[in-house]
Amino acid sequence: MNDVYCSTKFTSLQVHIQSRLLYNCCKAYPERINLDWLEQNPGKLFHTPTMIQDRTEMLEGKKCKSCDYGCYQYEAQGLVSARARTSSIQIDNIFQPLKKLQISLSTDCNLTCAYCSSEWSTAWHQDIRKNGEYGIDGYRNETDNWASLWNKIKQKDRSTNSRFFQLLLNEIKLSPSIEQIALLGGEPLLHNGLMDLLEIIKDKKIIITSGLGVNTNRLTKIIDKIKDYDINFHISAETTGHLFEFIRHGSNWIDFQHKTSLLKEAGFNIQYISTITNITSFGLLKFYDMYSDEHNISYNPVTDRNFLQPNVLDDQSKQKLIESIKDRLDIPFFRQLNDSVNVAYTDQQRQDLKKFLVEFSRRRNLSLDIFPEHFLNWLEII
Predict the structure, then answer these.
(1) Which candidate in 70, 96, 268, 347 could, as Cys together with 27 as Cys, close a disulfide (CB 3.0–4.6 Å)?
(2) Considering Cα of 130, then 128, then 381, then 279, what sign does the dihedral take?
(3) Is 187 exposed, middle or buried (0-12, 13-18, 19+ CB in 10 A)?
(4) What is the mean pLDDT of each run of 10 residues along the chain (382 residues)?
């Protein structure tokens, strides 16, 4: 395997229905699908000319442009990228059949998680529309994560009644190789078309990736409807208590625990997807110890905001974190965390982090006192 290769590029696809974007993989720069081309080339959604070119370049040992920001630039900083954590199985067939499909149903979401954006959350979109940008040089929340592409789509086209969605269903029928379909959001449990889609894909291994940003009554009704489906839940979480409520604003920690217990009692398999940032590091270990004996916890490094990377920490916080995990480095989760934390940060990242936290907390009337005093002093907040 060469040092630019990634097997995910050959096996997986993420589809953002509302924006008509294809992410191959989820960290890569997307392409907008040409619907006329897809109608004329049924069964080729996973083999667009762009994807074929990317795979060809990888096999030739060349860096493909779509992977530059999400992985290559991340690795250049010495950080652990998603590519570095991917299986190293060599695939030489540029027309390899699709195995894993992720479908983002809509951006409807009640939460404004600190690392998210308006591309994936309507609550974030409302924040930007009401309060404006965050004033960080080189960073615009309304257009980060390729949202400039997404914003070109008219609102009336942003639904599962769209022409693209119907074409996507046909692509699924034409792709018997698909083994797994994951449903994403926004918050997929908010989508009224969820049950109809589950009925169509019920012969596949199904994953629902959720932040559980729905009320208990709605969740209970959904559980009752899907209890006979073979579904795994990938739950987004990485901290506890007040820190959880700060990072995943709009969600209550006690309520979140109750919802996860409802899923567990219903017999669903639960896995946690932990988005690793500098501010999650203060509660990550407690969360891991609380859930790792019973559930798998996946390491998901943030890449879209370099000021939230795990290495952007004051020396005292960084050394405390390194010391707390030094006896756990045989576990890949903590080995990846240790490698990323030990990378140097820039003063620009520190300044951007300060601006972001001050503005994020001000708009939501949140206290920054949940963070250590030495961390806030380092940021020159107190």
Answers:
(1) 70
(2) positive
(3) buried
(4) 81 88 82 93 94 93 85 80 76 93 91 88 89 76 48 50 88 93 94 90 94 96 93 97 97 97 96 96 96 94 88 97 97 94 94 96 96 97 88
Tokens representing residue 162 in the block = 């769209």
Using only the alpha carbons of the chain, give its radius of gyration: 21
pLDDT of residue 146: 45
| C-alpha–C-alpha distance, residues 358 and 307, integer Å | 13
The structure tokens listed for 81 are 């990228």
Buried b (16+ CB within 10 A) or exposed e, 18-33: bbbbbbbbbbbbbbbb
- Cβ contacts of residue 257 below 8 Å, gap of 6+? none
Q: Which amino acid is at 289?
A: D
Q: Which of 58, 50, 53 is nearest to 3 (CA)?
A: 58
Query: According to the model, what pLDDT value does residue 87 have?
Result: 64
Give start-end residues of each CATH 3.80.30.10 domain in the chain. Answer: 107-141+182-382
Interacting residues of 30 by C-beta distance below 8 A, sequence separation 6+: 16, 19, 21, 22, 23, 24, 66, 146, 149
Other Cβ atoms closer than 10 A to 331: 15
Q: pTM, whole model, 2 decimals?
A: 0.89
Beta carbons of 75 and 83 less than 8 angstroms apart: yes
In this predicted structure, what is the pLDDT of residue 144? 45
**Phi and psi for 182 in degrees, rounded to 5?**
-105, 135
The Cβ-side half-sphere exposure at 87, using a 13 Å CA radius, reads 9
Q: What is the DSSP letter of 309?
A: S
Question: Using CA atoms, how far apart are residues 254 and 252, in angstroms rounded to an integer?
Answer: 6
For residues 217 and 253, the answer to whether their CB atoms sit within 8 Å is: no
CATH ID of 107-141+182-382, from 3.80.30.10, 3.40.50.2300, 3.90.1300.10, 3.40.50.1820: 3.80.30.10
Residue 141: exposed, middle, or buried by beta-carbon count in 10 A (0-12, 13-18, 19+)?
buried
The span from the CA of 9 to the CA of 23, in Å, is: 10
Distance separating alpha carbons of residues 273 and 163, to the nearest angstrom: 32
218 - beta bridge partners?
none
- Tokens 């969605």 locate to 165
CA 378 to CA 362: how far, in whole Å?
19
Predicted pLDDT of residue 155: 44
